[in-house]
Amino acid sequence: MSELDPKPDEVMTIAAARELVDGEVVLVGVGPPNAAANLARRLGAPNCVLIYESGAIGARPQRLPLSIGDDDLAAAAQDLVSVPEMFNYWIGGGRIDVGFLGASQIDAAGNINTTVIGDYDAPKVRLPGAGGAPEIAASAGRVIVMLRHSPRSFVAEVDFITSVGRELDGSEDGHGSVVITDLGILRPSHDDGQLELVALHPGVELDEVREATGWPLRVREGLETTEPVTERELSELRALRESADEG
Amino acid sequence: MRKAGKVQPLPEAVASLVEDGSFVALEGFTHLIPFAAGHELLRQGRQDLTLVRLTPDILFDQLIGLGRVERVIFSYGGNPGVGSLHRFRDAIENGWPRPIELREHSHAGLANAYVAGASHLPFGVLRGYAGTDLPKHNDDIAFIDCPFTGQRLSAVRAVNPDVAIIHAQQADRQGNVQLWGLSGVQKEAVLASKRAIVTVEEIVDELVAKPRAIVLPSWVLDAVCHVPNGSWPSYAADFSVRDNSFYEEWDPIARDRDRFKQWMEDNVLNATAPAGSPVPAR
């Protein structure tokens, strides 16, 4: 399979897409989760219900939307609701199975920062901020987080808690909350909910992950290797990305 | 009370309804962002504004980058799918061209602040914010106990702008407005504000009810202005699609202070029409 030569970001997106269980109701965040959720709908989870915080429920975009409010995802949605309704009835009301989020920083407790790097009042880098993430993280049945693995993103303490990590139910059946990176997969430990590495992507060394993690990395017993990317997964992902450019 | 003479040119509406130092909501969640009206604020030299929008988007990047903004109430300050708003970042990180004060929410928090504003309640209530660092930096967020269950909940101070500005697809000649597609918080923003300006794609003899539409009767509005393509590079469903290429092109323009100023001179300050051409609806 190595002749396929997927890029690390592609491996991350495909691994994240595989996490969705067919039929789940998914709140899709801006950026990388958007590609993964739409890929899942084209692969193993065609009956997932995609919800965008812009107000689209049951979105069926033909192309990969750039923003979460693109015309294409609104046009074919089952319903469009106002933003207050989206947050109060659908997200706050507990109708979301999976919150699919990106992050700039994450810590071992799963706290997410998308607000600032450095001090809030004099930030080194001002990031976009919360958007819908705090309530999505708090209200969804489980959370899938996608981000690139590096010492700058996997930090001992996040500079700002935008969304709170929490110990989540359901991890025992393998479908609990999960963090997918370009190096591997982390899940909350069954003991204390702290993130631990459960799988390495093919070709990634454990030491690479340790070096890219800003806290003493815990490794689950029986560390697995992610199933190699298939030709179909990669071609679907690349076609999806091209569809965005055509949009 | 009914107000007369709704349909009027945009420059007149802005001149009579928005002042320096006004508290202005410019709403539209990705869809129907009122760019043309925001640009008219710039051309008329409005300054020291307090602006509120869930998603500042390129429009606030432009207003902030030209130094017209004192305070921003918001919940997501990025260029969706592209990255940073560089003028917004420069103002916060470097105080250029002037520092701005932030009142930062989550979408749920700010949406409920508008709901409270439209309801003329002093605060909105939601589950959320617990454990996050947002309440530490925003005095408009507090915690309360439910009087019935004792549950700890979040309260957000109501948002009641001086003026709401939105873009819609249609108005009739009496100034009744209909908008459809993703409707964001526009209804709440209009009803929460003391005054309201709506720009529209077209003026028709009679509004024919559309599925999933919101109607804003003329008597809750102060001015209705015919501005085709008034949301470019955002879009108006059934009239145009989002100009995603421009959202990508904005990134290098906004990264550079001089290039940004030149672009604004050429396309906004010395222009009269919307800065770009509509991408036709599919």
Which class best fits the helix and strand makeup of chain B? alpha/beta
Average pLDDT confidence of chain A is 92
Poorly predicted residue ranges of chain B: none
Radius of gyration of chain A: 17 Å
> What would CATH call the homologous superfamily of chain A?
Glutaconate Coenzyme A-transferase
Q: Write the element-wise H/E pattern of chain A from the N-terminal end onward.
A: HEHEEHEHEEEEEHEEEEHEH
> Could you say how many structural domains of chain A there are in total?
1
In DSSP terms (H or I, runs of 4 or more residues), the helix count of chain A works out at 7
Helix content of chain B: 25-40%
| Radius of gyration of chain B using CA atoms only | 18 Å
What would CATH call the class of the domain at 10-105 and 160-260 in chain B?
Answer: Alpha Beta
Short description:
The complex is a heterodimer of chains A (247) and B (282). With 247 residues, chain A is α/β, with parallel strands linked by helices.
Which properties best describe this structure?
heterodimer, A: alpha/beta, Glutaconate Coenzyme A-transferase, 10-stranded mixed beta sheet, two-stranded antiparallel sheet, 22% strand, B: alpha/beta, 9-stranded mixed beta sheet, 3-stranded antiparallel beta sheet, 8 helices, 26% strand
Structure, described:
With 247 residues, chain A is of the alpha/beta class. Chain A has a single domain, classed as Glutaconate Coenzyme A-transferase. In chain A, 27% of the residues lie in helices and 22% in strands. Chain A has 7 helices and 14 strands. The two termini of chain A are 31 Å apart. With 282 residues, chain B is of the alpha/beta class. Chain B has a domain of 197 residues: Glutaconate Coenzyme A-transferase (3-Layer(aba) Sandwich), CATH 3.40.1080. In chain B, 28% of the residues lie in helices and 26% in strands. In chain B, the strands form 4 sheets. In chain B, strands 1, 2, 3, 6, 10, 11, 12, 13 and 14 form a 9-stranded mixed β-sheet that branches. In chain B, α3 crosses α4 and α5 packs across α6. Chain B is globular and about 55 Å long. Chain B starts with 9 loop residues before the first helix and ends with a strand. In chain B, 52% of the residues are buried. The mean pLDDT of chain B is 96. The chains are: A alpha/beta (247), B alpha/beta (282). Chains A and B meet through α3, β4, α4, β9 and α5 of A and α4, α5 and α7 of B.
